[in-house]
Design goal:
There is one protein chain. The chain is built from eleven helices and 14 strands. The chain is an alpha/beta fold. The protein has a single domain, classed as 3-Layer(aba) Sandwich (Rossmann fold), CATH 3.40.50. Helix 7 packs across helix 11. The longest helix has 23 residues. The radius of gyration is 19 Å and the shape is globular. It starts with a strand and ends with a helix.
Length: 302
């Protein structure tokens, strides 16, 4: 990609922070959407709850990456927090898409970060982007989330949906919680351990997002997950191998349901998702296996 002006929501999150760092290191101008009045030239004010975006601040942007949304695993899933999860994604995406559609010269591409939750529980069955949505709370949120970008598509903007898996990173997210537990020798499988986890290293996540931005033929859903999904039991074994720690403490499913509420069903659920479109478009993973992804995260800050 030639030097570009790229706007990003969710720029302080795990993925957003790494993406901003990568783009700026290569000389791109990054504009961050912030939920307060802009203080510097690289900030644009927005308020997803009010569906407000200072569209004037997006003039001249070549691309927009929309990553904002309430953390799925941040809190117990009460009904109120489930509403927050849904609204933060649907209202925010609607606001961004409408703001871009209102510009006389909109950006070439809107890249919306969504999730593999779209597919629901697939068991041991492998699925790719051709699979339909699943059933349950997260699949329904993902369907609404992606549909909320309709205004941008109708304005002729190339819209891609980066359906991201579990990001292997010690800096945050689900794996950010796992690393200290396993380093202390207290890690273990969750539930039966037979559920599939579709993972991706933080390095490959950022590289894949940039690949989508650069690849004009990629629009619609693109799965951002490594090509070899593994079971939670295999994740546990790999964490033990790479960190050289025992993994003796399984967490029973009933205990997870007590601790996590409805979110436990997604921790215990199985998603065996393949990155078909990413591979077909020529993307190559730096860390395609679970051992490589864990080792890369353990050795660096991405």
């Amino acid at each position: 990609m030639q030097r570009s002006r790229i706007a990003i929501t969710g720029s302080t999150g795990l993925i957003g922070t790494a993406l901003v760092r990568s783009l700026r290191a290569d000389g791109h101008d990054v504009v961050r959407l912030v939920r307060r009045p802009a203080r510097t030239g690289d900030e644009v004010e927005w308020d997803p709850a009010r569906q407000y975006v200072d569209a004037a601040g997006l003039v001249g942007c070549d691309a927009v990456v929309h990553l904002a949304g309430a953390g799925v695993g941040e809190r117990r899933w009460t009904e109120a927090y489930k509403r927050e999860i849904r609204d933060s994604r649907v209202l925010g995406t609607t606001a961004v898409a409408q703001a871009l559609a209102s510009l006389d010269t909109p950006p070439e591409v809107l890249l919306c970060g969504t999730a593999l939750g779209y597919y629901g529980d697939t068991g041991a069955r492998a699925v790719d982007e051709a699979a339909p949505s699943g059933k349950g709370f997260l699949p329904s949120v993902c369907v609404e989330w992606e549909a909320a970008a309709a205004a941008a598509e109708e304005a002729g903007i190339r819209v891609a949906y980066a359906r991201t898996g579990l990001v292997v990173a010690r800096e945050g997210g689900a794996w950010g919680r796992l690393f200290p537990i396993f380093r202390a020798g207290l890690g273990g499988r969750l539930g039966s351990g037979e559920q599939y986890w579709s993972f991706i290293s933080l390095h490959d996540e950022v590289a894949a997002l940039r690949h989508i931005l650069d690849t004009e033929t990629l629009s619609g859903p693109v799965n951002l997950t490594a090509p070899h999904p593994v079971t939670n039991r295999e994740v546990t074994a790999a964490m033990g191998r790479v960190l050289r720690r025992p993994t003796p403490f399984p967490v029973p499913a009933p205990a997870l349901r007590i601790a996590l509420g409805d979110f436990a069903e997604d921790v215990l659920g199985s998603q065996r998702v393949l990155p078909r479109r990413l591979l077909d478009s020529g993307f190559r993973f730096a860390f395609p296996t679970i051992d490589a992804a864990i080792a890369a995260s353990a050795a660096s800050s991405a």
